[in-house]
Specification:
The chain is of the alpha+beta class. It has two domains: 1-28; 37-136, no CATH class. It is built from one helix and nine strands. The chain has one helix at residues 4-24; strands at residues 37-41, 48-51, 56-65, 70-85, 90-100, 103-104, 109-113, 118-122, 129-136. Strands 1, 2, 3, 4, 5, 6, 7, 8 and 9 form a nine-stranded antiparallel beta sheet that branches. A hairpin with a 6-residue loop joins strand 1 and strand 2. The longest helix has 21 residues, at 4-24. It is globular. 21% of the residues are buried.
């Protein structure tokens, strides 16, 4: 029979090994290779982000205005073009037209990560945001 301290060391080593394996494998979730699809806002957010294979996107009825870093009344809409950047890890949205309610919003570009299956736009202080989750990989 092994002494108690030897068994404890074996359990500790086994637990550390299991934790390392879990950290290095799929705990972060599956990594997607394309942002094309239908994305919906999650949690308390509202809106839809449609990313099409022809290189265009639309955002409709969003509760956050990513171009002015502020909440919206579920009335932010935008259209534009997209492309993959930064070693295929981020998608760059080139907003061509955008509005919040009846007000036009100055277009610009924003690059965000997408490979985890979520796209999150947020303000510079990381206080306000909207997060979209991929729900359908075959948009119209």
């Amino acid at each position: 029979m092994k002494p108690r301290s030897s068994r404890r060391r074996n359990w500790t080593a086994a637990n550390i090994t299991i934790a390392a394996i879990l950290a290095l494998t799929g705990c972060a979730g599956p990594q997607i290779t394309s942002p094309v699809g239908e994305w919906v806002a999650i949690e308390d957010d509202h809106g839809t982000l449609s990313i099409r294979s022809d290189g265009t996107f639309t955002i409709t009825d969003a509760s956050y205005n990513p171009l002015e870093d502020r909440d919206a009344d579920n009335d932010f809409t935008a259209t534009g073009a997209w492309r993959i950047v930064r070693d295929d890890a981020e998608v760059l949205f080139d907003f061509e037209e955008a509005s919040e309610g009846n007000w036009d919003v100055e277009p610009s570009g924003i690059a965000v990560p997408f490979r985890s299956g979520t796209i999150r736009f947020h303000d510079p202080d990381d206080v306000l945001d909207i997060e979209f989750r991929l729900v359908d990989e075959t948009p119209e």
